[in-house]
């Protein structure tokens, strides 16, 4: 049923493109939808994978790449840490099942992040385990880059932020 | 050796036309257009639709002047027409069949693209590359 899933996602993106004129609006919408999925998916993930609590950001990033992506999309992106502070990571996907049938973005949609829903999912899931993060696409094969790269930047923990405000 | 490829949905307007070499293109368009009538004839003559690869391939439609025209229709009534130079006797039936099968596969890939609306003209680079390589093989 993977083809059905991929075709459904494609239909979703195509419909959003018809509903919204600007690419940024479509991207925001996808991210919001992904967020809604992520906050719910995290419980399913934790229940099915029974992993222990991650003790560092790099463990978390590895967990996302090797367990979560494998479980839900069947691919394992490679993780690399891209900052000295240890809070920025990038996941490099060489195979992305969501774009199996999409050859290239249509000319009028050049800045569309086709898989932006993934960013929202990761962001939502992390938030539910009290890790605030910014997730964006750094490179996208559909836009002509060599690989598809998702960047995760872990922000200070939500409790820390509240503490600092006081 | 000119080869021309065209597909057209039930309303019989072309989604994609390519010919090599590009002079006399209008003549090929005309040839292909008239052959569409023959295709329609064959389809109606077939009676009950048979979902068999062999039935999809219509074979040699009719030899005209110095060209041979082959046809192929999908279950969704999309017609593929190929015009080949008669002097190219090296082309066997099996090869024509496999070319049509490749065309059909590429066509289904295009259909799966969420940004493609059925009935649009085909502007896909992958499709162009596939057709080009096929025509190079024939020439």
TrEMBL record, chain A:
Gene3D superfamilies, A to Z: Trafficking protein particle complex subunit 3
InterPro entries noted in UniProt: Bet3, NO_sig/Golgi_transp_ligand-bd, TRAPP_component
Record's keyword annotation contains Lipoprotein: yes
Compartments, record wording: Endoplasmic reticulum; Golgi apparatus, cis-Golgi network
Gene Ontology CC annotations of this record: endoplasmic reticulum; Golgi apparatus; TRAPP complex
Coiled coil stretches, renumbered: none
Pfam family for this entry, one: TRAPP
Keyword terms, alphabetized: Endoplasmic reticulum, ER-Golgi transport, Golgi apparatus, Lipoprotein, Palmitate, Transport
Entry-linked SUPFAM superfamilies: Ligand-binding domain in the NO signalling and Golgi transport (SSF111126)
Any one of the GO BP annotations: Golgi vesicle transport
Record's keyword annotation contains Endoplasmic reticulum: yes
Protein function: May play a role in vesicular transport from endoplasmic reticulum to Golgi.
Annotated PANTHER family: TRAFFICKING PROTEIN PARTICLE COMPLEX SUBUNIT 3
Assembly mode: Homodimer. Component of the multisubunit TRAPP (transport protein particle) complex, which includes at least TRAPPC2, TRAPPC2L, TRAPPC3, TRAPPC3L, TRAPPC4, TRAPPC5, TRAPPC8, TRAPPC9, TRAPPC10, TRAPPC11 and TRAPPC12.
Family of this protein: Belongs to the TRAPP small subunits family. BET3 subfamily.
Protein known as: Trafficking protein particle complex subunit 3-like protein
Native source species: Aptenodytes patagonicus
TrEMBL record, chain B:
Entry keyword annotation includes Endoplasmic reticulum: yes
Family matches, as InterPro entries: Longin-like_dom_sf (IPR011012), Sedlin (IPR006722), TRAPPC2L (IPR044760)
TM ranges: none
Compartment list: Cytoplasm, Perinuclear region; Endoplasmic reticulum; Golgi apparatus
PANTHER family assigned to the protein according to its UniProt record, in alphabetical order: TRAFFICKING PROTEIN PARTICLE COMPLEX SUBUNIT 2 (PTHR12403)
Annotated family: Belongs to the TRAPP small subunits family. Sedlin subfamily.
Protein name in UniProt: Trafficking protein particle complex subunit 2-like protein
Taxonomic source organism: Aptenodytes patagonicus
Chain's gene name: TRAPPC2L
């Amino acid at each position: 049923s993977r083809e059905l899933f991929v075709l459904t996602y494609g239909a979703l993106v195509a419909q959003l493109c018809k509903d919204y004129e600007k690419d940024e609006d479509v991207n925001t919408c996808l991210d919001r939808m992904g967020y809604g999925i992520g906050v719910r998916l995290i419980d399913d993930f934790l229940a099915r994978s029974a992993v222990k609590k991650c003790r560092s950001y790099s463990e978390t990033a590895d967990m996302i790449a090797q367990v979560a992506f494998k479980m839900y999309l069947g691919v394992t992106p490679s993780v690399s840490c891209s900052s000295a502070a240890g809070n920025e990571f990038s996941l490099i996907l060489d195979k992305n099942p969501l774009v199996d049938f999409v050859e290239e973005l249509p000319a009028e949609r050049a800045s569309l992040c086709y898989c932006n829903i993934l960013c929202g999912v990761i962001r939502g899931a992390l938030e539910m385990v009290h890790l605030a993060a910014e997730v964006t696409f750094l490179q996208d094969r559909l836009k002509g880059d060599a690989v598809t790269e998702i960047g995760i930047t872990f922000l200070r923990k939500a409790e820390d932020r509240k503490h600092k405000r006081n | 050796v000119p080869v021309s490829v065209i597909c057209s949905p039930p309303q019989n307007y072309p989604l994609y036309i390519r010919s090599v070499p590009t002079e006399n293109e209008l003549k090929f368009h005309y040839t292909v257009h008239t052959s569409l009538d023959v295709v329609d004839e064959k389809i109606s003559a077939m009676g009950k639709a048979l979902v068999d690869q062999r039935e999809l391939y219509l074979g040699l439609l009719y030899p005209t002047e110095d060209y041979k025209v082959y046809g192929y229709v999908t279950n969704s009534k999309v017609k593929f027409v190929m015009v080949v130079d008669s002097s190219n006797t090296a082309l066997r039936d099996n090869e024509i069949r496999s070319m049509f099968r490749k065309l059909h596969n590429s066509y289904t890939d295009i259909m799966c693209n969420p940004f493609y609306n059925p009935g649009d003209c085909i502007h896909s680079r992958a499709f162009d590359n596939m057709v080009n390589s096929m025509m190079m093989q024939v020439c």
